[in-house]
Amino acid sequence: MPELHRLEEELAACLGDDRAWTTDPDVLAAYSRDESAFTRSGRPAALVRPTSTEQVSAVCRLASRLRVPIVPRGAGTGLSGGSCAVDGCIMLSLERMNAIVEIDTVDAVAVVQPGVLNARLRKAVEAESLFYPPDPSSYEIASIGGNVATNAGGLCCVKYGVTRDYVIGLEVVLPDGRVLRTGRRTRKGVAGLDLTGLMVGSEGILGVITEIVVRLERHPGPRRSTILAEFGSLAEAADAVNAVTRTVRPAMLEIMDATAVAAVERHRPMGIDEGVAALLIAESDLLDDASRAAEIAAMSEAMERSGALAVHATDDPQESEMLVGVRRMAGTAMEALGRVLIGDVAVPVSALNPLLTGIQAIAEDEGAWVAIIGHAGDGNMHPTIIFDAHDPKQESRAYRTYRRISRLGLSLGGTVTGEHGIGTLKSELLAEEIGEVGVAVHRAVKQALDPLGIMNPGKVIATR
Fold first, then answer.
1. Contact at 8 Å (CB) between 132 and 103?
2. Most buried of the four, 150, 199, 287, 386, by CB within 10 Å?
3. Which segments within 113-189 are labelled E, that is strand?
4. CA 149 to CA 422: how far, in whole Å?
5. pTM score of the predicted model
6. Beta carbons of 125 and 235 less than 8 angstroms apart
7. 376-407 pLDDT, tens per residue?
8. Which positions ≥6 away from 275 have C-beta within 8 Å?
9. Quick check: 20 and 51 in contact, CB under 8 A?
10. What is the pLDDT of residue 8?
11. Is 214 helix (H, G, I), strand (E, B) or coil?
């Protein structure tokens, strides 16, 4: 590892612009980790904030020559340690590469730099009657580059899919500084290996994403119709999810258990009955009123048939926004109760019932405080463990509960991450999921593109 003064000299020669890099300890500390719990962050040697692909390429060439690790970083909203620093690394923040390069209304594609916030892109394309569907709960502060790195999902995934379904091309700077272009702007194209798909979700271990081409949908329109249904048990709510998804394809189908509901009511009273065991919040975004009303009626009937205590439907925009806001507020409300460890386990929708009841059983067995929220329509749950970070016993119990729930998901044919990524938090669990051969293939791909092992080392696949 080069001495700090040499690294500073090299960065000055490489970048010139003083604003593009710093070794200030206070600034480095602020950029050294993401929002994850139970992950370690090292001490970076420098922070680089490039404004162009050329600068990223120059930094990668420098790091390769000096054998300095690079840790790419988006907005820092990650929950698995994917952008936590390693000792002596260059933290490479893409925040200043935040241009919307192009919105093509004919081909329905957009070209953006990685620092563009999800909400900003959604608003920009909406002005052109277009729609970018992936909407993680942190969409207002999460960057598109980070969404691509983790293959983020969101509330609309049940109908529209995840980030990978919308990324059709990338510009990637490889660890040695070479610039790779992947994908194409055509709607169809099958030439060669799917390098775009390989890079999406790779969490910065293969290269630095510097430009993204996304496909867009025609905007479904401003009207939404929303349902809030109350249930006396999680099992009945899970049955209702199965009944709904057998009938229609909703634009949203979210679940909250009694603990999550109570947290929201405590944070901001919404008038929700805290005596219910579970809520389902569903939406239809079909264009015409008649079709939307028919879809809402079908979902309401399915929920009532599954044992709903009450079903409230509305097509009033403000009321719909309020009902969806109940779900979006859940994370903030639980953070107000203590430190949170947010789970991310996805199972086939048919296994939702045993997953939910299993989570309850694990929480009871451990004596842990667990709230259940998640994207019920696609089986992606976020059991959230609330604990006192100053109590070592509670910390240990929270982590143990998290791992037991993750393994429960695996036993039900699921995956240890639906949308939050692996980082360092779940690398051991990933190895259990994909097996020895899967680990070997991951390492072979990493070795082929990053033979020096400098790109986000120790993430996704644990170092041997």
1. no
2. 150
3. 130-131, 167-173, 179-183
4. 11
5. 0.93
6. no
7. 999 999 999 999 999 999 999 999 999 999 99
8. 258
9. yes
10. 87
11. strand
